[in-house]
Amino acid sequence: MSLKLTVGQRRLGYGLFALAAFVFALRQTLPAEEVRERLTMEAATRGWQLSIGQVGPAGLVGVSMRNILVESREGVRLPLERLDATVRLLPLVLGRRGVAYDAWLFGGRVRGFFEDRKSGPQFAAAVSGVNLAQATPLRRATGMDLAGVLEGSLALALDVKEPAKSSGRVDLRVKEAALNGGELPVMGGALTLPKVSIGQVTAEGGVKDGKLTFDRLEAKGADLEATTDGLYLVVQPRLLFAPIFGKARLKVAESFWVKSGMAARRPLFEAALAQARGKDGSYGFQIFGTLSQPQANMGL
């Protein structure tokens, strides 16, 4: 049986074949060294030092990099085992620049996309298996030695001209969370933090009127319970520097103080937080600062 095609169908077939051949040739002849040099130069113009171990093709039109290290001027180091970045073809056809990414870091994986729209950038991520104990940049930024496994998703569409039109959603969880020490900025000083079992941490919130407001941000563990009230951050392109405001309450379990070495520290802890202590024995704080460097004042 012969297949008869119209002139239009043949032309369409030739065009699709030519496109497929072009994409295949582009993928197979990826100038790896030139890509490495261009990415390194682009990172340098933004104040980052970038080193890449291996570069190769990924997807239809994209690049795969391994053994990556990103370092800021302040000395913050972000190592990635692997990062695949591919061009999103549909947004490109519509005149928008978009990249889908798949990153392996801190023992886990982060997948999503970034798109540069006329109104502002759009970002989405799905997180699975990220080990916070390996996240040294987080420890340096917060001053706290955190442990646990991060999972969940987040999406954000910024409107640069009219921030009130920005939208987004955050649904994140940390399983088996723990605090292995560190310091919490309080009243111009620092409070040394002991080892604490935090348990399950849940963060849920949405973006409205230019603010990411947390409907639920709590931690429930064997050693303590922590909740927030009206906590929000002002959405902006550089999220690490987004201002954050709200209230938080902390309640320490009696069983925590019977642990080895903790009974002697209880009077010091209670004296340091005496101004924050409520009638029910919990401690209240006013949260402020930025997302990357939150701070707390005692009392609500």
Structure write-up:
- The chain is α+β, with helices and mostly antiparallel strands and 300 residues long.
- It is 20% helix and 52% strand.
- It has six helices and 15 strands.
- It has helices at 7-28, 32-45, 89-93, 136-142, 254-257, 266-272; strands spanning 48-57, 62-72, 77-87, 97-105, 108-116, 121-131, 144-157, 167-186, 189-193, 196-208, 211-220, 224-234, 244-252, 283-289, 294-298.
- The chain has a 15-stranded antiparallel beta sheet that branches.
- Strand 10 (196-208) and strand 11 (211-220) form a beta hairpin.
- The longest helix is centred in the N-terminal third of the chain and has 22 residues, at 7-28.
In short:
This protein has helices at 7-28, 32-45, 89-93, 136-142, 254-257, 266-272; strands at residues 48-57, 62-72, 77-87, 97-105, 108-116, 121-131, 144-157, 167-186, 189-193, 196-208, 211-220, 224-234, 244-252, 283-289, 294-298. It is an alpha+beta fold. It has a 15-stranded antiparallel β-sheet that branches.
Strand content: over 45%
Shape: elongated
Largest sheet, described in full?
15 strands, antiparallel
How confident overall, as mean pLDDT? 82
Q: Which structural class do the helices and strands define?
A: alpha+beta
Number of strands: 15
Tally of alpha and pi helices: 6
User: How would you describe the oligomerization state of the chains in this entry?
Assistant: single chain
| Radius of gyration from the alpha-carbon trace, in angstroms | 24 Å
Measured between the Cα atoms of the first and last residue, the distance is: 82 Å
- Would you identify the regions where 5 or more consecutive residues have pLDDT less than 50? none
Helix content: 10-25%
